[in-house]
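Researcher: Please predict.
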Amino acid sequence: MHNLTRTLRHIPLTALLGMITIAFYAVVAIGAPLIAPFAEAQIVGAQFEPWGEEYLIGTDALGRDMLSRLIWGARNTVGVAVLTTLLAFLIGSVLGLLASALGGWVDLALSRVVDLLMAVPALIFTLLALSALGPGVMNLVLVIAILDATRVFRLARATAMNVMVMDYVEAAQLRGEGTWWLIRHEVLPNIAAPLVAEFGLRFCFVFLTISSLSFLGLGMPPPMADWGSMVRDNAGLISFGDITPLLPAAAIAVLTVAVNFVVDWMLHRASGLKE
């Protein structure tokens, strides 16, 4: 408790603002059914209703309440991004740790597969895969998770390799400790900080990728509300001086900046540098 209090006392303002912003997004995403005035796909008025008391930020091309869509979009866009990042980290970190611990042909085979996947531009690979598999949340999650797992694999393998050559790991191996024991008790505690920071960075990349694909029409299928498709569907309003399409874009940008603030602080703490 004392360490937590001391950490919070010395936290920089940017990281504190980032944490508050992330917490706000989390509350909106979790409480969307209670906070949103209308259902996700409910048609409540005429198309492109102006801002007013009944519809605070107007309606879209189908007459759906934009504020409700914006709130539901927090649950869909952020929720799918978190799920995708968790799956990417599960695949990439487990394979990376196994490659570093086992070495030999296992490390060689996994590394070559990862190099092959990383040689193809991520956006082109994603567009081709989703065009072949078809739209759907599960296809979106699987394709992006597999691609991002390659980056996690490289980091997990590189950091774990540095730990595997330490004397205390060799001593544990001489005692007869197994591979999973070494990974759990010796490797993971020593690479947790860079992995946690990488999780934040991966989330930002995944979040922006999902939003970009939704803007291109290959993201979440309608009538699901997500911020990328909301920008695309209402982009024409900009010509009439209506800033409504900028709101989901701003929601994407604010969350990305907030996560980066927190990640920067965590990397600074992990580096051991003083202010």
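Model: The chain has one domain: 75-271.
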